[in-house]
TrEMBL record:
PANTHER family listed in its UniProt record: ISOCITRATE DEHYDROGENASE [NADP]
NCBIfam families referenced in this protein's UniProt entry, alphabetically: PRK07006.1, prok_nadp_idh
Positions annotated to bind NADP(+): T102, H337, G338, T339, A340, P341, K342, Y343, N350, Y389, R393
Record's protein name: Isocitrate dehydrogenase [NADP]
Positions of D-threo-isocitrate binding: S111, N113, R117, R127, R151
Residue positions, PTM Phosphoserine: S111
Any single biological process term in GO: tricarboxylic acid cycle
The organism's place on the tree of life at top rank: Bacteria
Amino acid sequence: MSSSFIKVPAGGQKIIPGQAVPDNPIIPFIEGDGIGVDITPVMIKVIDAAVEKAYGGKKKIHWMEVYAGEKSTQLYGPDEWLPKETFDALKEYSVSIKGPMTTPVGGGIRSLNVALRQELDLYQCLRPVRYFKGVPSPLKDPTKTDMAIFRENTEDIYAGIEWQADSDGAVKVIKFLQDEMGVRKIRFPEHCGIGIKPVSVEGTSRLVRAAIRHAIDNDRKSVTLVHKGNIMKFTEGLFRDVGYKLAQTEFGAQPIDGGPWCSFKNPNTGREIVIKDAIADAFLQQILLRPAEYDVIACCNLNGDYISDALAAQVGGIGIAPGANISDKYACFEATHGTAPKYAGLDKVNPGSLILSAEMMLRHIGWREAAELVIKSMEAAIGDKQVTYDFARLMDGATELSCSAFGDAMIARM
Ligand SMILES: NC(=O)C1=CN([C@@H]2O[C@H](COP(=O)(O)OP(=O)(O)OC[C@H]3O[C@@H](n4cnc5c(N)ncnc54)[C@H](OP(=O)(O)O)[C@@H]3O)[C@@H](O)[C@H]2O)C=CC1
Ligand SMILES: O=C(O)CCC(=O)C(=O)O
Ligand SMILES: [Mg+2]
């Protein structure tokens, strides 16, 4: 593959990590599969309008399309799902945004989303979950759900280290486990797929460190380590133990009543931050019944995937659930939801999740005034009951708007 399809927009400048963000940054975007074709242009239109309104033309994003997923196979060739020039651009321009990408179940290609996170070492998946006034919710008081999920984004069973049943690899790994590791517990070793779950001290430490720093910077009351460490002792249990240890060694947390919960004073505000843990199954009921008790959540990759969608449902669903994949150098923003294939091209779905992901991106580059306009206009559109189908079907007296009309309704309210 040597073709280049990326056109660098004239008049834009690179964002260079550690340097001031230029007023004319080039931001690469991946349109995404499925509903990507609907939500990505609406996101761009809304963000451009907010930036224009906030800065009167002094600042402007120069969007640069880069290709991955189905669109990339159409351009570069049938097996080119994530071309090298896309990776290179995401690194070179350091801040980017992407639509969702399809991953087939069972066979076929491995997740391009996971590949991107791993290749760019975007180890923090930050998914804030909070309530917007007027949004339909199954909870009596959805305002109590206000959490920031820090999901480890590069390891765990999600890393996709696994072998298909009956493949040479599966047979070999199972034989190794039985013959050399003394494993007797594989219930049906014949015709058995097998996977590996890596959870490391280093991977856990950097994620929990980011979660605790977020709690400090945002004056949150607690960080909860969510895990299934009673069952998977040396992976999820490690996650919990390393998290507690790090809170003590790096942040000076002291055990509460003999531990393992511990706490320290926020150096900025003097208020106490509690580090606690919860076993994942119980946590999933606690967030519904006692959401006010949770602030910042730190968890392994797979648990974070489940928790993200479950928490999103408490405050309106994945149509309005934003996210960011962050490393120490790069950031790639993306919605929590996927490609919702049955709605692709219908101009129907909620673009809110990708728009709010872009809002996080605006804050990330320090364009707070534009970010606030995005929030204000979304609240105003929802407050006026001008919403997409997902909210309209749950709200009395709402006007159902198309995806693009919802974007326009936001712009009209900036
Ligand atoms: N980061 C990424 O790129 C992700 C990619 N995926 C991939 O997406 C594909 C489809 O996955 P699937 O399990 O169907 O999950 P999706 O998140 O794509 O969709 C599930 C359901 O969520 C609702 N939904 C999703 N997006 C929106 C939106 N913007 N507005 C309103 N409602 C929305 C719809 O509910 P309803 O039917 O009730 O209207 C939809 O049917 C898979 O290949 C999966 O691997 C999945 C998650 C993340
Ligand atoms: O990569 C995928 O297809 C799914 C990813 C996903 O569900 C997520 O990151 O929340
Ligand atoms: Mg998911």
